[in-house]
Amino acid sequence: MVTPALAETTTTIVIGSGFSGLAVAAELNRQGIDAIVVDSFRPSGPGSPAPNTGGISLDALSERTNILRLLEHYALRHELDIRPGTSPLQLNRLGTDAPTEHQWTVLTADGTLSAHSVVFTRGALNQLRRVLHSVGLSTSHELASVMHSLGLYLVGVGDLVVPTTHEILHQAKRAGASISARMAARNSIAVLIPA
């Protein structure tokens, strides 16, 4: 007998369970937004490239390590839904623009997750490029605003270098505030639309 794949819904899916992903999860929790954090799209197994520190100084790495420990403690204490062993296999945009419907699905080996918003961290950039291409978007100076209108966010991503710890925390705070405002607007529209 085949067990059907688990289907779950949440407000936000965070792709990347490292420093940036935990920073976003903590900020979303602080904003009262439900989220599921999964691992990044990346190769695994022998011959996989080692993580690149991006030239971060030892002092900055030490600061980041200390903040990472605090974020991990926060995640445990607040029982955040962090799934580092769950890797996304495919991301799809649903064909709905209805303000109260989930717009995105993430297929994993354990099932399907659906959400209103998706946050990409550094490890998910190649997948993000494929998704943007599949919905007809190309890189432009207004890419961030277009992405936000689709419920897509970037955290832990710099132009050419790995952002500083402070920049990542600032990006997480901005994404959390934007997702919170987006959900408040959706909830207002849901109240106005009769069931």
UniProtKB/TrEMBL annotation:
Transmembrane segment boundaries: none
Database matches in InterPro entries: FAD-bd, FAD/NAD-bd_sf
Ranges for domain FAD-binding: 10-43
Xref: Gene3D superfamilies: FAD/NAD(P)-binding domain
Domain of life: Bacteria
GO molecular function ontology, one term from the record: FAD binding
One Pfam family recorded for the sequence: FAD_binding_3
Name used for this protein in its record: FAD-binding domain-containing protein
Annotated organism of origin: Arthrobacter alpinus
